[in-house]
Structures
1.
Amino acid sequence: MTPISRAPFVSHLTWASTQSGATAAAASDAPDLGQIPEWDLSDLYRGTDDPAVARDIERSTAEARRIKESYQGKLAGLASDGPALAEAIAAYEQLSDLMGKLGSYAGLLYAANQADPARAKFYGDMSEKLTRISTDLIFFELELNQIDEAALASAIKAPALAKYRPWLEDLRKEKPFQLEEKLEQLFTEKGQTGRGAFGRLFSETMTGLRFNVDGEPAPLALEATLNLLSDPAEPRRHAAAEALAKVFKDNIRLFTLITNTLAKDKEISDRWRGFKDVADSRHLANRVEAPVVDALVSSVREAYPRLSHRYYAMKAKWLGMETLSHWDRNAPLPDKPEQVFTWPEAESIVLKAYGAFAPDMAGIAKQFFDKRWIDAPLREGKTQGAFSAATVPSVHPYVLMNYQGKPRDVMTLAHELGHGVHQMLARDQGPLLAPTPLTLAETASVFGEMLTFRALLSETTSPREKKAMIAGKVEDMLNTVVRQIAFYNFERKVHEARRGGELTSDQLNAFWLEVQSESLGPAIALKPGYEVFWTYIPHFINSPFYVYAYAFGDCLVNSLYGLYQEAHPGFVGKYFDLLKAGGSKHHSELLAPFGLDAADPAFWSKGLKVIEGMIDELEAMDRAAV
């Protein structure tokens, strides 16, 4: 609930890359992609044995104790002295940055190789130490929320305290759901052996799984196996799907236990805190109102027939099938050029697209390449997915991905660099105000993807290649919007049903098939084995109800990009102001300069019409080709 007591390492995973790192054996058969960078974490620490690590732990411990001794039981009294209260919050903020630096380093080191026992131990030990330190600070936000409203309104007139107004206002929203200090300490400490432990069990289990795919010379890790679902050859896709289903079924009892445990853990927390709906705590963290999310969800579900159902029926026709088996959903189009981009080419493409929009945006992104803030090779034990970790404002973000040279990898790079640019621009807000709610955190990432896609499309002259690119983009957008809303609905079913008792694997499988059938439509045949594919989605484990943020961001960006194309007055400046604000403004304030209102259902319809329009364009291409 607080900046310090949150997990020390938070990543932004992209929908396009939510799988495990491929094995070295699989990578050895890959084309030459040039020199792919590994990150340099020395801006955080030079190594686990860096004396600065122990020194910063000692500093954090001492400073937490000093803050507790100096301010516990006294914050309400400081309300009469705005500058003094600001000084207390500034000390708390600086400590948040220091502890975040330690946690970020441990998390990034672990993410780069979860199979390394030494890194796993360092990460686990660091998490324990930071949790122990944070328990001394739980009182701080609880006491701030006990300050009388009138007294706080008077104190905040002081310029030094006025800086923190948005943070204090957000903190006030958490007041009804906060517990007394001893209970908050218990929740924090038990998190290590509860949610945190089960999340780590899931992650390390997924990293260690190997899949025997017919026709492959050696077992593959998850990402390499999922990658085969995009293979041009149907038999390879089918074999990959069968291998995935077998291993997921072999481990279904473990994944069912993890899911039940974490859903119950959340139910206990929600009940004690007073959250009524299963997603209320996520909405609060996202600083978004439930009716806004409900409008998004209902708009997307209502659009399923016009979007995913229609597109997959077209794709089945292109592939010469009556219906697509679930392993054909991501199959490439017939005669699609199997284009491979080297790493230098990917860098050039993204920076050129960013630069055409705003040279400053490209300049920030270029630092990630020049200063080795990116870790991109496939590597044994590397975490699944892609993310841009903001770390802390006093340092800079780091990007992790698993680059294989595909066009989708270029889009993932553009996506994560969008996060990175956003995080760089927002860091002047400081540790308490820089973090952006998930609903807005996807804005720059999806916008960066759109810029890169449009740049590539404008340079494509072949009608066949253009059709393939548009179809690929439609699939990406369906994955970002339709698939993520289906994920959200699956989570709702799971968490609502879990309140009535433990769920069986068969129940979970049935929920999965229900939401997938509704969202994908009759053109996709969900064959036996697909019912267990819910098991590998990390968001369900690590960040309950995170997923709707992707749909929120995609629809928002569609509306923003439409304004950009229409030469909306001062668009670039307004866009940079939005990113620089970080978490200091509500989404309604940030969208107002663009004339947009997320509370209006028409807003979501406008964003969805962009996807619908691209499907219309594909249909027109089909008619012209007849």
Note: The chain is about 60% helix and 0% strand.
2.
Amino acid sequence: MATPISLVRAPIDPAAKLECVSYAPFRGEQTPLDPTTMIAPEQIAQDLKQLAEISKCVRTYSVENGLNKVPELASQIPGLKVLQGIWLGSNRLKNLQQISEVVELTKQYPTVITGVIVGNEVLLRGEMTAPDLAANIRAVKSQIKLPVTYADVWEYWLKNREIYEAVDFVTIHILPYWEDFPIRAKNAAAHVDSIRKRVAVVFPNKEILIGETGWPSAGRMRDGALPSRASQARVVSEILDLAKKENFRVNLIEAYDQPWKRALEGTVGGYWGLFDASHRGVKYPVGVPISDFPRWKLLMAAGMALSVITFGAAMLTLRRRPWPPRFVSWFAVFVMATAGGALLGIAADRMIHESYGIGGWMRWGLLLAAGSLAPPLCANALLAGRPLPVFLDLFGPREHRTHQALSIVLGLTLLVAAILGVESALGFVFDPRYRDFPFAPLTMAVLPFAALALLNRPALGRRPIAEAVFAGILVMSAIYTVFNEGPDNWQSLWSCAVFALFGITLWRARAAQSQEPAVQ
């Protein structure tokens, strides 16, 4: 379990406000994906008051869902400015409505709105051509007196240079984590600076504003890019230091974690904020050590408890055995207890951050339950001399089903782990981009299963078909995922090793009894 990590300073410096930060007001179940969502002005005012303490400016992306109230509410907070966004898409009528409303806002609040961003990543999404976008930008410029720009990922500026002629300044997005070849956290600030200078060479006569940059605090690895609290704090701090040193403006993404983005981008989409979503608390208070596991003491205590329970299950089993167990059996119990105890806190923390919606909580909750039950159940079975159950012991012909309660519970635990393991493994083959790696809870379950299958394997018996099919899927998926994710992604390598071990374990499974019907 990781202990706190101290940094030179927290990303938010109370002595120097941020230049700007992206703002979306959505909390809890609120989402802009529902067009009927309307955020109360009181909620926005509360956020803006908090953000004004750390930032000179907020960047918005739209005037929908109540965001048209941001300039008015910001005007009531001394010193807070707004970089006003216009959301453009493929709906021309909606585009005109957005433009009309923002034009009116610039006339009402000319000292609050410092610039207008006409469109956000509309070229990236392919919802508008460059000529159409340029026409919209010029239409807005003809109606207002404020600077106008367009915001997109830096590559799309280089691909569509005609947009440069239409804007007053260039707004680029540089997200090292999301690059086609992801950048490690330690190199992220240097990457941002390198791209900024590259774009400045191509567009030399206008300011280059970094309209989005940052790092996620949770989610899956991409190559060597690891989302974590410590990494987020490091990347943001180093980018801000670089911006101060080289005198360029940066807008961080984003103010608050946005849970709704997880529906589009997986876990990682919801954790780019400087403040957490639920309590609206700053993630990195000044002077407080930064840890990837803020609850590490509680999680460590839970892990130690699981280790004790596992050893306790083994000791209680010995009271019914007339002979002493082999040394290798005790060593296997030690491995089960140690691995389970060490990984329980990590697995619980990842369940908290990676579970989204009822389905997500059920999926990760069941996997964590399987990982927590497997060590004591397998320790009991190992010292009692029972083999790893097979699915036929639970669902086969009635005369061959097991009637031992602990064997039934262990068999159900194995079944849950196998179903969720196969589902996860197939996900990394067919839809891997936003999927989280279940390395911690799956390891907690698979190591005990593997030890039990190795040491208490029946001498005779058939290989069950279901286990063989699951084994093939797990092993083939693991091989594919290793090559697809690359050698720098340790979450992938770890998960694939567990998938492969699980596959081998299921392949070695044997039904202790013949499943053929008795001859009459």
Note: The mean pLDDT is 93.
3.
Amino acid sequence: MSANRYFTESEWSEFRNNYCRLVDAMRDEIRYDEVKALSKIVHNAIERGQMPRDEHGINPLLRCINTALLLCEKVGAERDTIIAIFLSPLVESEYLLWEDVSNLYGDGVIKLIKGLHKTNELDGKQGAINSEYFKNLLLIFADDIRVIFIIIVDCLCLMRMANNHADDKYRRNITTEASNLYAPLAHKLGLYKIKSELEDLALKYSDRETYNLIVHELNTTKKYRDDYITSFIGPVKVELQKANLKFEIKGRTKSIYSIWNKMKKQQIGVSGIYDLFAIRIILDTEEGADERADCWKAFSIITNMYTHNPRRMRDWLSNPKSNGYESLHATVIGPENKWVEVQIRTRRMDEIAERGLAAHWRYKGIKSEGNLDTLMNSVRDVLESDNDDPLEKIKDFNIDIYDKEVFVFSPKGDLYKFPYGSTVLDYAFHIHTKLGCACIGARVNGKNQTIKYELKSGDTVEILTSSSQYPKKEWLNIAHSARARVKIKQALNEIENKSAELGRELLSRRMKNRKIEVDESVLMRLVKKSKYKTVTAFYLDLGNEKIDVNDVIEQYLAIIEKDRQEEEQRSAGEYTFDTKPVDDNKVDELVIGGDIKGVDYRLARCCNPIFGDKIFGFVSSEGTIKIHRCDCPNAINMQERYPYRIINARWAGKMGTKYVVTLRVVGHDDIGIVTNISSIINKEKNVFLRSISIDSDDGIFQGHLSVAIDDISSLNTLIKKLRTVKGVKDVQRGAM
């Protein structure tokens, strides 16, 4: 391999240096003959043009060397992981076959390479990186936690190599990935130094001016800062030892990114940040002893030595955080009038803060994610232990925490989460109800699939629709998520309501053509006689032509004729009331006048009185007695102009009659509001929905419902329930 042809001068120098360091780091992990064989494979691949620079000009071999070396230094050396880093690009380019890798280095390397290739499929999905689900999908694709370590370290290598890169867009893209994805993952895994460097470089590339300002404002070297911390710690150690406290004391300066983050949150300059320097005092007080007393003793010593800011004091001993975090925080003025934050806790408290309920990544406010927490904490425990070979233990961790969920992309790159077993239909209804109702299938990863196709993590799904498609009952057996099933049921109910409305209009139009006046009470008797549980079901069968409209009209006319004959037998003539003795065993519905029963009367259509309303009778000019509600809109006029026609009336007893009432409903025009209203009415015992008409204007819903009901008590109950429907603002009783 010609170094001059494949490397630039600076790259060649970096490569030789890092190659020697890597070989030395891997001396106890990879045999010398394996190193020679691996070098030969890579050399031959380069000679055959199988490891060219990528589209951004990055040298792939230098990238592999840097990633492998950094992984050894920051995490640990492990044979399979290092080999997989070098062979992954050669398998992806098909220079090496899977069988060759398996024969040479074993199935452990194969597993890692497959994980790396799978995670590479997420390249170009930057739009979804900010999604809370993206790292979950990354973990699913990795299948091995060591793959996650590789891609985190590889990201840091790319960030370092991008320092002088000419393509600003490329640098912005990897900066977005580093700050939004890999830095938080590194934090969760306990890779704090990698996390800090990723954040610092991300700030440097995204806002170099601010980065340089912070560096300049700090106005000191690392040696100076270390000397400062030493000068602060020195006298503190002496005083703590005088108090017979056993302790460990650590000092550090905040990272550039952390300083910038505080500047942004607090809207201040660097000079306004109190805690550029941080000290942690960990007391070796035995668990069960008076830990708090020792913490307060140390606090007293510190604040006697240095002036502290009471406003910045934090007492999480007396009132621990809900996640179990216990500590005392004090911010004091140290030498040279610099602010220093001091954290005081016992060894037990520190263990809880680092590995327990308040693990550091959770303490910083990163959202908990169930099983992911357990996995990450287990990995961090291994990393922070004294184990010389952490990756050897970590390789046994299997990432199988997302076997109940799938994560899929939209064509625009948005990422969605679904229960395992969800189908194309679930996806369509999740995006929009109208899209779900018109769904006929989808293009999944470029291939046509039916609505029954089960989604797999990483799928890109584009819904296909047809204007002739409509929801079907069998879709309830295809949809897996509760959300989709609810929407399908709502859509089916909407369809039924529309069909029922068509049936109602059909009957009304036919009766009008035959000049038949509709009496709702008679129609309700017909519905009940036909053994329909609801009037909606009756109209639905009419609309779907399951029953013949002409047959319905003939049955209606038959009931009218029968009623007419009965009325002729009962009628006592105009203004003549039947005052024959009342049969005590027979209960009439109304009592007219004093105790007169069996009188011909009609219920006024202007106010539609129902059983239980306060009522009065009014003798019309035709001689018919009409029953009005006492609060009828026309009551005052009738009583003032025709007092001699007013007759007392009261309800005597129920006869099983259904009364028609109109309700006016007003509210917000929410999806499914009609279905919800209809559902409540249909669930009410002995209440039938006759008709419903809807108007919507600028988001305001106004509907008129006609229902058949038993009495005023049932009506009041129904009104109360309708007012609880989401989106409904008011329900009032109205006229026909």
Note: Residues 355-372, 570-587 have pLDDT under 50 and may be disordered.
